[in-house]
Amino acid sequence: MEAGKLKGLLGIAEGDTSRDLSLEFVIDDVTETILNYCNLEELPTGLTNTAYRMAIDLYRYDRPGDPGAPVTVASISEGDISTSFTSAADALNGGMLKDYQGQLNRYRKLRW
Fold first, then answer.
1. What pLDDT score was predicted for residue 24?
2. Residue 27: which of 4, 61, 46, 44 has the closest Cα?
3. Tens-place pLDDT, residues 54-85
């Protein structure tokens, strides 16, 4: 995966280097997730676009390096008005992989 291509897909200007560290983290995290789930040593070319899609989702929802990342409402109680919040990253916990499991399972190898 290339940071330049990910920048283009996210609509980030090529000359903008302020998000490079966050983008590198996202690329490393997605690559690690795919390799660990599939029990592989290197990313197959057939999973490149899936990896970019996962990276885009992770960057948009997790927003690494952004202290003002959005929170979502986890639950609302009307009696005595109670509202609890969760971060967008918590919403992806387990969900990001689940969304792409179909594509990843084709490349998954069993480990003994």
1. 93
2. 4
3. 999 888 887 776 655 555 655 667 777 776 66
Alpha helices (H) in 1-112, listed in sequence order? 3-10, 20-38, 48-62, 88-92, 95-105
Residue with tokens 């992806």: 92
Region of residue 76 (left: phi > 0; alpha: psi -120 to 50; beta: else)? beta
> Domain spans of the chain?
3-105
Encoding tokens for residue 66?
Answer: 């952004």
Helix (H) or strand (E) holding 107: none
Q: How many angstroms separate the CA atoms of 81 and 68, rounded?
A: 25
3-state secondary structure of 46: helix
Q: How far is CA 62 from CA 42, 48, 80, in A?
A: 25, 20, 31
Longest dimension (CA), the chain: 54
| pLDDT reported for residue 71 | 57
Q: pLDDT digit string (tens) for 9-55?
A: 999 998 999 889 999 999 999 999 999 999 999 999 999 999 999 99
